[in-house]
């Protein structure tokens, strides 16, 4: 390309105009853009690469065109050989060919057929000959009768022959095929062929397409090479090889000569480059380049900084005995490659400053560890131990904690009382300090005594020169000094205005005494621990109150009754008192009610709520209500409790309270059960089979709106009914279905008695650390035999009272209860008379001989009599008063159709 002519410099008196040069046609000469001139220039690296690419692509295209032409020719030749062979075989196997060869004039018959086949197949000749090679047909009739040119001997043996020869028509490709008669004897030969001129015509027809494809490939490859070279031109800025080599040498010399470490890391964290100073300062190995910086033997903080690529300015890192200041920036700010470059310089002169910073960091770390490591449990002693374990050996060689006795019990500190050594830790176990558990009173002159009295911290830099401290115990203080303990800090454990105890830090290994800065650190450390110890103290107090309340609310002993043999277990949760409870309530008619309940939650609120519900069940059971009606009343009570608690912002509602109520009648051996959100009871039959009773599951207490349903179970004598709370079957590791199956397996292996059953269940199912309370109640059924039951129907006639009295007297005599005849006759006379007068038929009298003598009168009326004082003028109203005076207990029990008035008398 030529360059545009330069303008001549202008002179003051002469103006020179330059006429633009014209190319053919009179147009202006075109100048390519600057980037294209640089690309076509052989001086730049990009130009050289572009030219090399073009030459290589051109050679590849030429080679491809030659290869394609040769391939086309080869394919054409193979096509000619295949077509010749196919045409020859077609004619050789055509019908009548054998007869034509054996006819007197084969040429007459075969020449037209051969020519027709030749024209249809597009071959240059089709020749039929005898076995001696004499032609019968040929496109040129003057060749008929002459000998065939080519190899045909293999065809006489039965094998087709295909070859390239120069025949009568010129260079050609021909095929020779034998003609066999029905006996398989070769009687003639057929040859078909195509001349080389025809084959070459096929190749020439395809050559324009091949050349066009090659030209297109050349254009595309050249365009791609131009794009790649343009990219290379941008990256190399148009520099030539010599210039780039010189620039690299200069950069390399500068990079490795500076006295500052340079580290380049890509965005994947791989070390790309580190100069000599970086190798020296960071202690990098020779093969560091190309490895991940996290895999190099670097300080973890330095490696993390280099791998992160974040911006850093004069960030100080300790590497060995050096303090290195690291500056790091990203390399892709101005369109560069992603990654980061860091400079490292030695700042060992900042060692003293770094030492103080390290001390401050260690103290901050210790305070942080105190915040997360002290108070992990709500136990006063354990919290004090965590304080001493943290302080030794990071801050002191020995540490002790002394707390007031009342604080350990959860109460307020008694400043006039004694303290107890609650925790102690040290670098050695043989220090002559008071052991854990020692009860003591610190004298007023000792640092501990002054801290407890004033609430201030004190430091004794030299214990050997502190007479006030030695006054506590002359002998032991002398042993402590002789042991090597020489300095002491005492800090009171303060929670608000309360001083819970005192913490003592002792130093022995380090020769320098405690100073004021360390005193401030000790105060901060103890202040954080004091909050946790006070929380543990408050929790201990609340836990003790909850345990006391719970023990006072749970049954201390089971009532006497004959219907059931009962055993029970109650295991409180390890983390706090819960709301699980149970009860055994004797009812009228020798019946017994079994109750198991659960209040979700722990602490005083759960225990108090449990007590309220247990008291309510006691009261409701006195009404002799069916289980479903009793749970309905209990549900309403919980709803009212929730309403009251909601109005009080300091209280919480009862959420998730459950209850199961069962009534067993030893006369009928039937048990009526209802449950409100509680797990179903397990039933162990006398033969040892275990099943869960199908009791309809009602909603938990307090939801309201839904009725409760009952299930009636008929229990054979000796059956065991197992009631429990969810703490026995629920666990974080599995759902309740798995827990129920595990409980069933434990019950299958249990012994016959309720005690054995409780023992086997808890041995199998008791968790190592119970997160919830566990209440277990096992009741084995007994039956009241017919010999101890008496029944008489009573007609609705006042005259029947005398007959009833007579039957009662005879039955009591049979039972050996003659001393109860008079009172029983009087009681039943009044009750039967009342039923005849105010009740309805049918009327029935039943007597049960249990622990007490039970008299019952049944009638169909639902009206209950009431006890009252009769006035002097009243004719009646004294009978029920008389019954109440003679009987130990009496009452009314309602049935679906009527009522029962009952009275109990003690059996002497």
Automatic annotation (TrEMBL):
Keywords: ATP-binding, Cell membrane, Hydrolase, Kinase, Membrane, Nucleotide-binding, Phosphoprotein, Transferase, Transmembrane, Transmembrane helix, Two-component regulatory system. The chain crosses the membrane at residues 45-70, 207-228. PANTHER family: STAGE II SPORULATION PROTEIN E, STAGE II SPORULATION PROTEIN E-RELATED. The keyword Cell membrane applies. SMART domains: GAF, PAS, PP2C_SIG. It is found in: Cell membrane. PROSITE patterns: PAS. Residues 1-30 are annotated as: Disordered. It holds the Pfam family PAS_8. It is a multi-pass membrane protein. It comes from Streptomyces prasinus. CDD domains: HATPase_RsbW-like, PAS. Residues 247-287 form the PAS domain. Residues 10-20 have a biased composition (Polar residues). This is GAF domain-containing protein.
């Amino acid at each position: 390309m030529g360059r545009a002519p330069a303008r001549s410099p202008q002179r003051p008196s002469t103006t020179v105009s330059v006429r633009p040069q014209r190319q053919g046609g009179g147009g202006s000469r075109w100048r390519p853009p600057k980037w294209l001139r640089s690309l076509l220039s052989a001086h730049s690296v990009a130009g050289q690469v572009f030219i090399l690419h073009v030459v290589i692509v051109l050679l590849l295209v030429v080679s491809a065109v030659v290869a394609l032409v040769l391939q086309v020719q080869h394919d054409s030749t193979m096509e000619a050989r295949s077509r010749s062979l196919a045409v020859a075989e077609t004619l050789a196997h055509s019908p009548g060919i054998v007869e034509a060869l054996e006819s007197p004039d084969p040429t007459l018959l075969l020449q037209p057929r051969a020519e027709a086949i030749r024209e249809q197949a597009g071959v240059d000749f089709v020749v039929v000959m005898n076995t001696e090679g004499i032609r019968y047909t040929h496109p040129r009739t003057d060749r008929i009768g002459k000998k065939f040119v080519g190899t045909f001997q293999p065809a006489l043996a039965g094998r087709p022959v295909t070859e390239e020869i120069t025949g009568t028509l010129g260079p050609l490709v021909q095929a020779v095929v034998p003609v066999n008669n029905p006996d398989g004897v070769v009687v003639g030969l057929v040859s078909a062929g195509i001349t080389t001129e025809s084959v070459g015509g096929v190749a020439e027809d395809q050559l324009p397409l091949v050349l066009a494809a090659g030209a297109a490939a050349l254009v595309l490859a050249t365009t791609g090479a131009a794009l790649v070279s343009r990219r290379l031109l941008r990256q190399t800025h148009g520099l030539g090889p010599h210039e780039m080599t010189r620039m690299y040498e200069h950069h390399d010399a500068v990079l490795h000569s500076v006295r500052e470490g340079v580290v380049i890391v890509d965005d994947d964290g791989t070390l790309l480059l580190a100069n000599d100073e970086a190798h020296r300062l960071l202690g990098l190995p020779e093969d560091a380049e190309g490895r991940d910086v996290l895999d190099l033997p670097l300080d973890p903080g330095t490696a993390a900084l280099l791998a992160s690529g974040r911006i850093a300015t004069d960030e100080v890192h300790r590497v060995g005995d050096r303090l290195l200041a690291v500056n790091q920036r990203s390399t892709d700010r101005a369109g560069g490659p992603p990654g980061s470059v860091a400079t490292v310089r030695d700042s060992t002169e900042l060692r003293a400053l770094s030492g103080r910073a390290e001390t401050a960091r260690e103290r901050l770390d210790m305070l942080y560890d105190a915040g997360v490591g002290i108070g992990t449990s709500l136990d006063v002693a354990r919290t004090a131990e965590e304080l001493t374990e943290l302080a030794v050996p990071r801050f002191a060689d020995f540490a002790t904690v002394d707390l007031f006795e009342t604080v350990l019990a959860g109460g307020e500190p008694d400043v006039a009382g004694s303290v107890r050594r609650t925790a102690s830790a040290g670098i050695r176990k043989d220090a002559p300090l008071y052991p854990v558990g020692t009860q003591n009173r610190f004298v007023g002159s000792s640092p501990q005594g002054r801290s407890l009295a004033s609430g201030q911290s004190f430091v004794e830099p030299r214990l050997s020169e502190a007479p006030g401290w030695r006054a506590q115990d002359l002998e032991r203080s002398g042993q402590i000094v002789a042991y090597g303990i020489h300095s002491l800090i005492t800090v009171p454990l303060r929670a608000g205005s309360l001083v819970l105890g005192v913490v003592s830090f002792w130093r022995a290994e380090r020769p320098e005494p405690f100073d004021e800065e360390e005193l401030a650190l000790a105060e901060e450390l103890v202040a954080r621990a004091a909050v946790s110890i006070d929380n543990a103290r408050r929790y201990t107090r609340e836990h003790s109150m909850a345990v006391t309340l719970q023990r006072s609310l749970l049954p201390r002993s089971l009532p006497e009754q004959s219907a059931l043999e009962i055993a029970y277990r109650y295991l409180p949760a390890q983390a706090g008192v819960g709301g699980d409870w149970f009860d055994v309530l004797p009812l009228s008619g020798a019946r017994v009610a079994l109750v198991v309940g659960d209040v979700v939650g722990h602490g005083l609120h759960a225990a108090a709520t449990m007590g309220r519900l247990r008291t309510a069940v006691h009261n409701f059971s006195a009404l002799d209500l069916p289980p479903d009606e009793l749970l309905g009343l209990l549900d309403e009570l919980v709803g009212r409790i929730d309403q009251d608690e909601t109005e009080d912002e300091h209280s919480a509602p009862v959420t998730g309270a459950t209850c199961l109520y069962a009534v067993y009648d030893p006369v009928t051996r039937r048990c009526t059960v209802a449950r409100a959100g509680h797990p179903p009871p397990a039933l162990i039959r006398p033969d040892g089979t275990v099943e869960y009773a199908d009791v309809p599951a009602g909603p938990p207490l307090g939801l309201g709106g839904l009725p409760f349903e009952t299930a009636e179970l008929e229990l054979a004598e000796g059956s065991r009914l197992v009631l429990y709370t969810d703490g026995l079957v629920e666990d974080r590791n599995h759902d309740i279905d798995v827990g129920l199956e595990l409980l069933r397996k434990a019950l299958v292996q249990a012994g016959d008695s309720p005690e054995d059953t409780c023992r086997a269940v808890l041995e199998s199912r008791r968790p190592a650390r119970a997160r919830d309370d566990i209440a277990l109640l096992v009741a084995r059924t007994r039956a009241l035999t017919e010999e101890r039951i008496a029944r008489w129907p009573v007609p609705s006639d006042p005259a029947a009272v005398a007959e009833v009295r007579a039957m009662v007297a005879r039955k009591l005599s049979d039972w050996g209860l003659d001393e109860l005849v008079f009172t029983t006759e009087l009681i039943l006379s009044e009750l039967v008379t009342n039923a005849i007068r105010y009740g309805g038929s049918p009327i029935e009298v039943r007597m049960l001989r249990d622990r007490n003598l039970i008299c019952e009168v049944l009638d169909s009326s639902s009206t209950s009599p009431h006890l009252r004082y009769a006035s002097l003028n009243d004719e009646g109203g004294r009978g029920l008063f008389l019954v109440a005076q003679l009987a130990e207990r009496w009452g009314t029990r309602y049935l679906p159709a009527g009522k029962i008035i009952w009275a109990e008398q003690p059996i002497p």
